[in-house]
Design brief:
The chain contains 16 helices and no strands. The two termini are about 100 Å apart.
């Protein structure tokens, strides 16, 4: 409802009230006052009515004008507001376009500067890289020349031949001797052995295996030249002399004996027996068909020695470990002898591979079965648990795999079966190690 309608309603209500008041007033006057006075009052009333009508007209006009003016002001204000909004929007659009323009310009400038910096850095880096590469190439060339001169010198050539003499390029023998020695030390100590004992025996394994290789080549110096696999060995090919081989053997044995002197007296006495076994093994292939058993005894003698060094006494477990090592060495060295069997038959060298003939695979299987039984007895006597027997089960699987490899007696496959014994020893030692390091905690 508009303001004009409100004023009209108010005017109507006032008019009705005045008319009602007039009727009552006339009735009152007719009864109370004379006619003359009544006429004057009626005249006054008529004039008042005219004035009121004019007032009512004026009020209507004023209200309409006020409403019109108010609507005009509102309309004008809205137009100004709309114009201001449009101007603000145009200004905002202009500012946005200007900002985008200058932002694009700034980014272009930054990109150009960055590209210039990158190009300069790339050029500097390439130049530096070229310089460094040139310097390194010169240094490498200089070092290669120096190394070549040193390597071609007589002392360097001799050291290289000595390294080949003791089979530093073929560490399998060291590993095959190391695993039973470590197993004996861990079982003797009931866990981690004494550090001094551990160092002496690990070093002793390296030294005595190397000494064994030197004396073996000396003993076979007239045989190796007739075997395809060994004809290029340093002593056979004349790159070192017999005297040098004996000196290397003596130096290694004396160094090992010097380490043994740090142990208890019983270990020192037992080391002399080990020396006799190691020195005599290479000559046994000329006298009997069991040089592999002799090698097993030479390798296995480190086991009771390690046991005595750790505990200062010998126990049934130590001798069971010795027997197991002899059996194991006999099995894997027979596989090794199967590689050279044809050459050994031609030159008259004896071995278990020749002795066993066509029963070689069967006898190796029997030796493996006896070895596994012996290892089970060791586990029972040493009160070993699940980790040890898990390792033994894995080793048994490897023994079966070796039987599979030698099934056709092919030299290359027999050699692979021989090398596989490194894993056989590793899983056995891992079982013993975990048994004492983890099994002892959980039990």
């Amino acid at each position: 409802m508009t303001a004009q309608n409100l004023l009209q309603n108010a005017s109507r209500q006032l008019r009705k009230s005045l008319l009602s008041l007039r009727a009552k007033f006339n009735h009152f006057i007719d009864q109370q006052y004379p006619q003359k006075f009544i006429k004057k009052l009626r005249l006054f009333w008529a004039q008042l009515k005219i004035q009121f009508g004019q007032l009512n007209t004026w009020l209507h006009q004023y209200a309409a004008l006020a409403i019109k003016n108010t609507l005009s002001v509102i309309h004008t204000g809205m137009l100004h507001t709309l114009r201001l909004f449009n101007s603000s929007r145009k200004l905002a659009n202009s500012l946005a376009k200007s900002t985008a323009f200058y932002a694009d310009k700034s980014l272009d400038i930054i990109d150009k500067r960055t590209l210039q910096i990158q190009n300069r850095l790339s050029a500097a880096t390439n130049k530096l890289s070229t310089t460094i590469s040139s310097l390194l190439a010169r240094q490498k060339q200089w070092l290669l020349k120096g190394f070549h001169r040193v390597s071609q010198s007589r002392p360097a050539q001799k050291l290289k031949q000595y390294a080949l003499l003791i089979r530093l390029d073929k560490p399998i023998g060291i590993l095959l001797l190391l695993w039973p020695t470590l197993i004996a030390l861990w079982i003797a100590a009931g866990g981690w052995p004494d550090n001094e004992v551990l160092f002496v025996f690990v070093a002793g394994v390296f030294l005595m295996r190397s000494a064994g290789c030197a004396i073996n080549d000396y003993a076979d110096r007239h045989i190796d030249c007739k075997v395809t696999r060994t004809k290029d060995r340093p002593l056979t090919s004349g790159k070192i002399t017999e005297k040098e081989a004996l000196i290397v053997f003596a130096v290694l044995c004396l160094t090992a004996f010097g380490l043994v002197l740090l142990m208890n007296p019983l270990t020192i006495i037992m080391s002399l027996i080990g020396l006799v076994l190691a020195a005599s093994y290479p000559f046994m292939k000329r006298h009997h068909y069991l040089p592999q058993v002799h090698l097993g005894a030479a390798f296995g003698w480190a086991v009771p020695m390690a046991y005595v060094a750790q505990t200062n006494e010998l126990s049934p477990v130590a001798w069971l470990l010795f027997i197991a090592t002899v059996l194991w060495a006999t099995a894997y060295d027979t596989m090794y002898a199967m590689v050279d069997r044809e050459d050994d038959l031609k030159i008259g060298v004896k071995s278990t591979a020749i002795l066993f003939e066509s029963a070689d695979k069967l006898i190796i299987g029997i030796i493996h079965a006896t070895l596994i039984l012996c290892l089970i007895m060791i586990g029972k006597n040493a009160e070993l648990g699940g980790f040890y027997f898990a390792g033994l089960l894995t080793a048994s699987g490897l023994a079966i795999w070796q039987q599979y490899l030698i099934r056709h007696r092919e030299p290359a496959a027999c050699f692979q079966a021989f090398l596989n014994n490194n894993w056989f020893g590793l899983v056995l030692f891992t079982g013993v190690f975990l048994e004492y390091q983890i099994g002892g905690i959980t039990s």
